[in-house]
Description:
alpha/beta; globular; TIM Barrel; three-stranded antiparallel beta sheet; 383 residues; nine-stranded mixed beta sheet
Amino acid sequence: MARALYIHWPFCLKKCPYCDFNSHVRDEVDVELWQAALLAEMRAEAELARGETLESVFFGGGTPSLMPPSLVGAMLDEAQRLWGFAPDIEITLEANPSSVEASKFADLALAGVNRTSLGLQALDDAKLRFLGRLHDTQEGLNALEVAQKAFKRVSFDLIYALPGHDPVEWERELRQALSLGTSHLSLYQLTIEEGTRFATMVRQGDFAPLDDDAAADLYELTQDLTAQAGLPAYEISNHARPGDESRHNLTYWRYRDYVGIGPGAHGRRGGMATQRHRKPENWLAAVEQRGSGNQSEIAIPIGEQASEALLMGLRLHEGIDLAGLSARFGMSGEQLIEFEELSRLEDLGFVSRKGDHIAIAPQGMPLLDAILPRLVHDGLVSA
C-alpha cells in the first residue's frame, strides 16, 4: 500500500518559459476553499489507500511556498490522522527563493516541513533572466541561507546545458553550488519541452539548444565534480551525500505505491494508475460534486507495470534486482530483460551485471535514453 503522499499546489506567480508542469497563474486564490477541497480529497483517497504509515510527504507544484503555513499544517495534521507518520518521516516542500517566500520558512518548519527543495536554477543573473526567473542571484543565496537555518535538510535545483554554456562557466557555477553546504543537489540539463514558450522560441529561431556533444561534456564534468565533493549521483540528475537521498523520489523510482492529490496529480495504488483533473477549476468542481478530483483510474497491465519498474529502476545508480522484480511481477528474467542485448551492452562497458543485480554503468548514463529501450524486453507492455 501507499507509503508516500504527494500534494499538488498548482499556482505560480509567473509561468517559466521552460516549464511544462501543471502550473497556473491566478490573480486570487481562495485559500479556505482550497483547504477544504484538498482535505476532502485526502480523506476520499485515504478510504482507498489505507495501510502502511507514510514515510514521506511532498508538496509540489506550481509553487507550494506560496501556500500559507496554516494550510500546510492543516494538511499534515490530517495526513497524520488518516495514515500515521513513520518516526523519521521526510516532509518536503518545493520553494521559490523570493524574499517573500523565504519569510515563511520558519513557520513552514513549525508546521512540520523538515526538508525543502529550492528552485535556484542558476547562480548567475544573466542565466536567471534567460530562464525567466523572478529572483536574482543574491536573493537566491539569501533564501538558501534562511532555508538552511529553518529546515533539517535542504536541496536546490540548477539547470545547465543552456545555449552557449561552456565547461569553464559551468565548472565555476557548480563549484560555487557545492561550496554552499547542502546535502542534496538536483542538476538538470535544459530540455525543450513541447508546449512551452522555449519550444516556440526554438521553432522561431530565437535561440538554438546546446548540441548533444557539448551537453555530454558538461554531464561528465558534473559527475566528476559532484563525486569529488561527496555528493555522487544516485539518479541520473540527482546527487546526494549517502543517506540524504530524496526518499520521496526513491518511492517513484523504486516503483512503489503513492497517493497523489490536487490538480493534475498522479498516483499509483494496487496496480491502478490515478490522475486528477489538471485545470484547477475543473478539479475543484469535481471535488465539490463527488469528493474527489480524480479524472481517471486505470488498471495497469502487469507487463506495463514490469516495464515501468525496469525503466525507473535503471535510472538509479543502485540499479535493479532482477530476481526481486521477477518474483514481484510473476515473470521470468527472460521476459523482463533482453539478455543478448544485455551481454552486448556489458561488453561495451555501458551496463554492469553481478548475478541478478543489473545497473547502468557511469559511462552508460549519458546514453540512458538509447540504452533502456534496447535492454527492457519489448514485449512487456503487451504481456
